[in-house]
Design brief:
- GO terms for molecular function: aromatic-L-amino-acid decarboxylase activity; pyridoxal phosphate binding; transaminase activity.
- This is Aspartate aminotransferase family protein.
- The modification N6-(pyridoxal phosphate)lysine is found at residue 232.
- By secondary structure, this protein is of the alpha/beta class.
- It folds into three domains: 43-257 and 267-285, 3-Layer(aba) Sandwich (Aspartate Aminotransferase, domain 2), CATH 3.40.640.10; 292-400, Aspartate Aminotransferase, domain 1 (Alpha-Beta Complex), CATH 3.90.1150; 409-472, no CATH class.
- It has helices spanning 3-13, 35-47, 60-76, 91-108, 125-134, 152-158, 181-190, 248-252, 278-314, 342-351, 385-400, 409-415, 425-435, 447-455, 458-472; strands at 84-88, 116-120, 137-141, 163-169, 194-198, 225-229, 241-245, 256-258, 266-268, 319-321, 329-334, 357-359, 372-376.
- The chain has a seven-stranded mixed beta sheet, with helices on both faces.
Length: 480
């Protein structure tokens, strides 16, 4: 094939993807709406696409880029004289490393038994992944069912000498609300536990706003680490994030070094060895282009659009805004027993060219959390709020006329007796056929699938969700 043929084929492959630009995809991607940002990022990434960030002594440009970005992040987010940081591949890796470092510090201090990770139920799923990988016990902490903020009283009750780390969000991804960082960080410090602020999605927005209700960053006593993604509201390409630690000793706790083999001595600050330098260079270039004034303007424009969206959506019959959005995230829920089902609403918005993210209901002690529809507002969406609200009003009317999605009771009853750990791949395939998602082909309307996921026992639902991805990632015959 010629280069043009290959590129044409790649372009054709993208025909079924959701758009990455234009502001209609309100999850997964972050579009500044500025062509100059995209062009510069692409050029910077291309110029470093062959550079290996594994060894900054061989590629000192990587060390300069990383130090510059960590320095900017530390200055922006309340870092003190001892603050250091690491560039990672994304928010998940930043969260993983924060948990690993806290566990290692806890073990070094002689923590008894198995370390615990205290998570408000709204904390990002990446922390559950960290607990799974690094063998910590997750302690679920309920959030206030109305405000959806972490509950300090529940954290105080859960804290003990086995707690290695408490996680709080600025803001939480599901509802876009700011946890009470100061109060919970103080509780963690008093108990001798670390406290991580997950600012992956809000850390490059909150510092540029004037209406943040309370401090949230490393300047808050008791906060030991903080994560912020540059491939979100830093508007850099995927994937680059920053993990900041309040002191150098904590950063050392997530590094790995070995001279115990015949090859070159290995020192890795992240989970990966080889690290692509392209996204780092792109993030550095975009920051040099925009600077604090550019980011401030984008953040304030996007925040204003978020407030307009929340006001307009909350005024629609049958819908309400959950909690108090503090940055650029909005969560919509059904208002009252006869309100608009948000799972149906998601399908109606998909039909109108918008990707809004359905979030199932969640059971917790002290009051369950409702199903919601998550909207991430970016710079590109800011100019389309009126169009979005018009489509949302139209979609809400159509969704209100639809029957509510209900899981097949026989399928739910059968699932209650299943041991998910004992299921083979073939058995999962068969169950997915019964559920209407066989072959990895998702139905046009996803509301019934989401309703089924919400109704199933959580371990069974997780096994079936993994089965869907397993079906998606089954290669066809390799062409010769």
């Amino acid at each position: 094939m010629t280069p043009d043929d290959v590129l044409a084929e790649l372009t054709a492959l993208q025909a079924g993807d959701v758009p990455t630009h234009g502001g209609a995809t309100m999850a997964y991607v972050y579009d500044s709406g500025r062509a100059d940002v995209d062009e510069l990022a692409a050029a910077a990434q291309a110029s470093f696409q062959w550079t290996n960030a594994l060894d900054p002594t061989a590629f000192p440009s990587v060390a300069r880029i990383e130090n510059d970005l960590v320095g900017v992040a530390a200055a922006l987010l309340g870092g003190g004289p001892g603050t250091v940081g690491t560039l990672t591949s994304g928010g998940t890796e930043s969260c993983l490393l924060a948990v690993l470092a806290a566990r290692e510090r806890w073990r070094a201090a002689g923590g008894p038994g198995r370390a615990r990770l205290l998570l408000p139920v709204t904390a990002h799923a990446a922390f559950r992944k960290a607990a799974h990988l690094f063998d910590l016990e997750v302690v679920d902490v309920p959030v206030d069912p109305v405000s959806c903020r972490a509950d300090p009283a529940a954290v105080r009750t859960a804290l003990d000498d086995r707690c290695a780390l408490v996680v709080i969000s600025a803001p939480s991804y599901p509802h876009g609300v700011l946890d009470p960082v100061g109060e919970i960080a103080g509780l963690a410090a008093a108990a001798g536990a670390g406290c991580h602020v997950d600012a992956c999605i809000g850390g490059w927005v909150l510092p540029f706003l004037d209406d943040v209700p309370e401090p949230f960053d490393l300047s808050v006593p008791g906060v030991t680490s903080l994560s912020v993604d540059l491939h979100k509201y830093g508007y850099a390409p995927k994937g680059v994030s920053v993990l900041l630690t309040a002191d150098p000793e904590l950063r050392q706790a997530h590094w790995f070094a070995t001279a115990g083999w015949p090859g070159y001595p290995v020192v890795n600050p992240t989970l990966a060895g080889t690290r692509p330098a392209g996204p780092m260079a792109a993030a550095w270039a975009v920051h040099r282009l925009l600077g604090a004034p550019g980011y401030r303007q984008l953040a304030r424009d996007t925040r204003a659009a978020t407030l307009a969206l929340a006001a307009g959506a909350g005024a629609l019959a049958g819908l309400r805004v959950v909690g108090t959005p503090v940055t650029t995230l909005v969560a919509l829920a059904q208002d009252g027993p006869d309100g608009v089902d948000v799972l149906n609403l998601a399908d109606e918005m998909t039909a109108r060219g918008w990707l809004l993210q359905p979030q199932p209901p969640f059971a917790q002690s002290g009051g369950d959390l409702p199903a919601t529809l998550h909207l991430t507002v970016t710079g590109a969406t800011a100019g389309r709020v009126d169009a979005l609200l018009a489509d949302l009003a139209d979609a809400a009317r159509d969704a209100a006329a639809l029957p509510r999605p209900v899981a097949d009771p026989e399928l739910v009853a059968a699932a209650a007796g299943i041991d998910p750990a004992a299921l083979t791949v073939a058995e999962v395939d068969g169950l997915l056929e019964l559920a209407g998602v066989g072959g990895g082909r998702l139905p046009e309307r996803m509301a019934p699938v989401h309703a089924l996921v919400a109704a199933l026992p959580r371990p069974v639902a997780e096994r079936l969700l993994a089965g869907v991805l397993d079906l998606v990632y089954r290669p066809a015959a390799v062409p010769r």
